[in-house]
Design brief:
Strand content: 35-45%
Structural class: mainly beta
Number of strands: 29
Strand order of the largest sheet: 25-24-26-27-28
Shape: globular
Helix content: 10-25%
Largest sheet: 5 strands, mixed
Mean pLDDT: 78
Low-confidence stretches: 12-17, 160-183
Length: 451
């Protein structure tokens, strides 16, 4: 930055800030190289000069950020409400994050002044996938304010019946298709398909998006430079999760966790992925039955995830109790009403398997070692515990992703969060929500990314 530009910035400084301009850019960048992302954000708030140096540093090709514990995107406080055009109260579209390391929630910690509109249907590499009421998909980076519109339309080339299904299912009341109330009927999960994960930045000539839609029934992808959504024909619809693993796109089915693999290595500008693998499930039914008997649970469901960890592909099974009695303390008009009992779903435990792509089998794992997994509606993440201050090793940190039931009742939904340790096989809370079992919108893990 030129000396003239620096003087221009300094001339606009508020009284009391002048001493901060005595620190040179070289020294500031030296300090920033030793800070995690959240501390760089805080440092940039000190004054306009530091903000300018921070922007230049984080956008430079040489910047290699320290690993950062994922943040939890949570609903804004209840008091953050305003009147809409009809005079009804609604929550402001503000950003609120929970920091696992500090066990503290932050409002407006991000430097961008933008807020997002639409329903969040995914989180991948620091970007939020947003779906608006006209079924348009876009990406929003809450840390930089950058936006990318996905040009492709999932309604293109479909029958009138299919189009009506998708549009009606998204509407707020969901009167025609109550089973798929809300945006989750349209998109269950969306992730980025990046050609070079190491560079972090999106390359619109080579990258794209992959998603699960139609209530989990379909898989589709769209390259940014192509602008068309194309379905991936699978043998085990419906699906729970999808992940990019090198040049492969892997999906796992809702029924028993079958893994399907497509090769994208020869797609180029005209995508034509090839189905290369279909791996049978290895659900530990005997262990599951024994566990249910010991805990006196009469009904549970299974949810499946895929995650890359230490260069290997893992399949994770989540056991969820369908009916668990809890007491809810309702708060209305400044008064606590009498508690009432409700039956809601709750995660009981996890199983982890290594996906052996060579032999096309799943091998059960007893431990994650020093790894920590972050699962939910986000692009599944695995990090070393040393890079995740505030986390416990050999654990799975999870958020609610039971979309079929999250909106079925006003008393609960979005509540099923915690962490599960594979060593002692216990579920514990990481975010304190005493007697509150309704969180809307559903919390998401977001990996901070300034690009």
């Amino acid at each position: 930055m030129s000396q003239l530009k620096r003087k221009e910035i300094a001339s606009t400084a508020r009284e009391g800030e002048a001493e901060w301009y005595e620190v040179g850019s070289d020294l500031l960048e030296c300090v920033m190289r030793r800070l995690c992302f959240v501390d760089i954000l805080r440092m940039k708030r000190a004054c306009r000069w530091w903000f300018s140096v921070g922007e230049s540093y984080t956008s430079s090709p040489s910047h290699r950020p320290c690993f950062q514990t994922p943040w939890l995107l949570i609903p804004p406080p209840e008091e953050e409400e305003e009147d809409d055009d009809k005079g009804e109260r609604k929550s402001k579209s503000s950003l609120c994050f929970f920091n696992l390391d500090e066990k503290k929630a932050y409002r407006d910690v991000c430097l961008c002044r933008e807020v997002y509109e639409g329903r969040c249907v995914g989180s991948s590499h620091g970007w939020l996938f947003l779906l608006d009421k006209t079924a348009n998909l876009s990406l929003f980076n809450p840390f930089s304010g950058a936006r990318i519109q996905v040009e492709g339309s999932l309604k293109e080339g479909r029958s009138e019946e299919e189009e009506l299904f998708d549009v009606d299912a998204y509407t707020a009341d969901g009167t025609k298709y109550k089973k798929y109330k809300g945006g989750r009927a349209f998109i269950l999960k969306a992730i980025l398909m990046m050609s070079d994960i190491g560079k972090k930045k999106i390359n619109k000539d080579k990258d794209g998006v992959v998603l699960i839609y139609r209530g989990g029934e379909k898989l589709a992808f769209c390259m940014f430079n192509d602008g068309r959504f194309m379905d991936l024909d699978g043998a085990h619809e419906s699906y729970n999760d999808v992940i990019c693993y090198g040049n492969l796109v892997c999906a796992i089915s809702q029924l028993y966790g079958f893994v399907e693999v497509w090769d994208f290595s020869t797609t180029g500008s005209s995508p034509s992925p090839t189905k290369v693998m279909d791996i049978s499930s290895c659900l530990p039914l005997k262990k599951a039955r024994e566990f249910l008997k010991s805990t006196r649970q009469v009904c549970c469901s299974y949810h499946f995830y895929l995650v890359e960890s230490c260069g290997e592909l893992l399949s994770v099974v989540r056991m969820v109790s369908e009916f668990m009695d809890v007491e809810v303390h309702e708060h209305e008009n400044g008064k606590d009403n009498q508690p009432k009992k409700i039956s809601l779903y709750k995660t009981l435990m996890f199983y982890v398997f290594r996906v052996d792509l060579h032999h096309k089998i799943l091998v059960e794992m007893e431990s994650l070692g020093d790894q920590v997994l972050f699962l939910g509606g986000n692009n599944s993440i695995s990090l070393r515990v040393e890079d995740c201050p505030g986390c416990i090793k050999d654990s799975i940190y999870f958020t609610d992703s039971y979309w079929e039931r999250a909106d079925e009742d006003d008393s609960y939904g979005g509540h099923d969060m915690g962490y599960y340790n594979l060593k002692d096989r216990c579920v514990r809370p990481f975010y304190d929500t005493p007697h509150c079992y309704k969180m809307k919108p559903t919390p998401f893990w977001v990996l901070p990314n300034p690009w």
